[in-house]
Amino acid sequence: MTENNQRRSKQKKEKKNKKRKLLTTIKILLVFFIILSFVGAGAVTGLVVAALKDVKPIDPSKIDTMLDENSVILDKNGKVIEKVQRSGLRTVVSYDEIDEDLKNAFIATEDRKFFQHNGFNYTRLIGAIIEAIKDRHSPRGTSTITQQLARNLYLPHIKSEKTLSRKIKEAYYTIQLEKNLTKEQIFEAYMNTIYLGSGAKGVQAAAQTYFSKNASDLTLVEAALIAGITQNPARHSPIITKKKADVKEDDYILDDSDEQYTIVFNKKCIDRFKDVLYFMKVSGKITEEEYNKAKNVDLKKILKPKRLNRSEISSYFTDLVKDEVINSLIKELDISKEDAYNMLYTQGLKIYSTLDLSMQKKLEAIYKNSKNFPNLVIRKDSSGNILSKTGSILLYKRENILNNENYLVIPKNHYKYDTNGNLILYKNKRLKFIPLYEKGKRIGISVAVADTYKIENNQVVIYKGGRVNIPAQYKSYDKYKNLVVSKEFLDSNPNFFKKDNHNNLLISKENYSISNKGSIQPQSAMVIIDYRTGEIKALVGGRDIKGELLYNRAIKPRQPGSAIKPLAVYTPAIDNGWTAASIIDDVPHYDRNGNRWPKNWYEKSSNPKYTGYKGLVTLRKALQFSMNVPAVKVAERLGVNTSMEYLEKMGISVESKKNPNGSLVKSGPKNDMNLSAMALGGMTKGLTPLEITSAYGSLANKGIYIAPHSFTKVTDRNGNIIIENKPIKNYVVSPQVAFIMTDMMKSGVDAGTGRKARLANMPVAGKTGTTSNNYDAWFVGYTPYYVAGVWIGNDLQIKLREGSGASAKLWKKVMEEIHKNLPTKQFEKPEGIIRMAVDTVSGKLPTKLSYKDPRGSTVRQEYFIEGTQPTEFDDVHVEVEVCSESNKLPTEFCPTTLIEKKVFISRPVPYNPSEHGGFVPADYKYEVPKTYCDIHTHNTVPSNPIDSLPPGTIILPNGTKLLPDGRKILPDGTIIFKDGTIVYPSENNNTTENTNSNIIENNENEINNN
Predict the structure, then answer these.
(1) Residue 649, SS3?
(2) Would the pTM count as exceeding 0.90?
(3) How many helices and strands (H and E) does the chain possess?
(4) What is the pLDDT of residues 706-720, one digit of tens each?
(5) 26, 116, 146, 200: which has the fewest Cβ within 10 Å?
(6) 227-264 burial by CB neighbour count: b if 16+ within 10 A, else e?
């Protein structure tokens, strides 16, 4: 074939193709017109029937209810702290409020015949088709303003689809809008729904975002710039928000005030801006002179960006507000969750929150300083991986698991190939193989990537692991529970696993997931509440306080440790007739299996038998020094059901089918109906910082629990109240019980385990809490103004170097800022409280012996609820004669000059260390001696004992001697003491007998029965 023939044939073929494309396009256009006519006439058949069968009826006359307007969250003073947004900001403006230049700019650019057509611009459509055929692309730019509105309002989820079904639906909605609305109404709705970049929906939001002004006040240049965004918001928005590290030298900075981000000018908006001005000129909306002047304006100089979509504070609090509002809308209005969600995000609600913005900022400022948090106790292996307390790898060092190219590395000794060519990945290495079940049947195996860590700015940062994406049908276990990846998968995916030069397997980042956002450790949460109202004033749910929808640790349960004691042990005790002066003996206690339990935190491993128990202590002291044994003994006497009852009255949630996230677990194989949970805080789930803080608030609030809440009311866009938040109130205990508990916890802060939380000019009542191995550290306390709770811990089980002292210090640092300039107040004492002296060893009225305790006076002033004060006198302190040289009971051989009276204690329930593993309580050495002097014996008595008898001794005819102190010495040397004790002659010098033993036994039984 000649070259001319080839050329001729090619031209003929191209002409034929063009002709075919034109005929096809005309056919499509004709079908489109036919469909439109059918829809307009109501004759719905064939394809149209299929497309419109699921179309919901609409009422265009109510279009104003569909115009999304962002709800706002206000602080306690009415200041906007967040515009609630789902995918952009929006504020509705009327047609008359829209600047004339802005109207003209949009009409000239988007739909020049808007006021003339009936919803479809047929001339423009045909022209676009012909142009498309000529330039060989799909028709574009044919949608009218009405069509765009129909998409935005009724087809938001499928408006990007290129299907005929979507076009038919759009045409249907377009016709309905044109039939029922005026052009002004359509245009107003369009201007309030169009997305204009940078999170702004609608022209009012755009005017605020780019120029910090209203849509009614825009200049020609500003109007043209906004109208130009519509075609491609991502490309034509005049501003770009960049991370500071990404800002280039040639970027023009518009705003650099944010800590993380910088706003720069987008040069790509200039050409589109000039296009809009040109369209306005050729449409006759502006003159040549206006055109030339406007196109030469330096756009960088007129932009005044306003960061509407960025809050001054973290989203922890506002996320909580939104959750509470949605739940309240569902309950109060009896609507679905979906309807409540849409109402929040589209109906322009005003939410009046309880937030104190100043307080929140102070709280967050303190949380930003890493020096306010304790270090971690970390054990590492030789590769730098962090180990658990059992020695297994808890966290991999990130560079050990990912190489420089972000490949996931499986070491050569972590895998093998079997004889069939299957890949065997060994268990308990960098990958975890987790079986997946459904209805008791295993349906697959998840291949989980281990968590990793990095050291950033001297802080441990944890990155959550993800998974390796191997389809289920190619995975199985071998008999050792290793993972088997089938040869079939390896053959069909040869690049899934690669090998490096050391024979390690490599998995590319396309085939696995792992978090790139780390979480600094240790973590922490804090809640501050006005306990008189239940209003949450400030809240932080973690140290990573940037972003939205953050993991809020303030509403996640953690084991409370000893912070549970005031709530579940001592408040129920005081409410059930115990007093702050009631006595508990801190000596060994045993569980059901006969094991010594619990241990006190002050039991030292170096010398446990002499430091593990304090002996007789008051309830006040037991709480003040967070003693475990007394707490368990009191809870045991009360019963765990009683403890649980009080926790529920204080607002602690219970797990149930309706509330699976409840904190308290009352049934099941693992539950909280035990002393470990109720007395020591070793709970199945734990308590949330928000719950435990509000529970303490019930004691601060004179025994009345008020449910914590984050908002007070919600109004619609017209100011009508649709929700008035009236929190639940519970009577927990009387004001008198609450006051006693407050004063007991105040002792713990003044001179106990919580002393690091003391404030200089304000009383504090509170309690520390630490769990085993310092995994969790708490301080919850209150002043006459606020109650606040702090938790510090790790997202994984890593030990803190400092326990509850760190939480107490953080609590103090925050509350010092909160209480600056507040007048000093004292906790209010209610009527029905008396104060009187009490002996702190017996819990009874003091005697003169109470002041002579060998440790010093054991008398203190104590508060009592009227009617519960002691009426009996101290009988634990006794005065006994002893030999001053041996400090034991004297014998007849002790010189009278060495015999003196001393004060001792006599335990109500005798304690014998030999029966308890040799554990000796600290007060045991102050008990009445149980043995007789072994220093002075018959060997030390002079040869003529008569000469050594004291003056006043009477010698009877039978040789019996009656001594002035009441002793009687028989002729055979037997000594009978005044109290009936008998000491036999020297050959049985250490043998004694007490003729009053039956009286002691009776007294013991009497005590036990009380």
Answers:
(1) helix
(2) no
(3) 29, 48
(4) 999 999 999 987 789
(5) 116
(6) bbbbeebeebbbbbbbeeeebeeebeebbeeeeebbbb
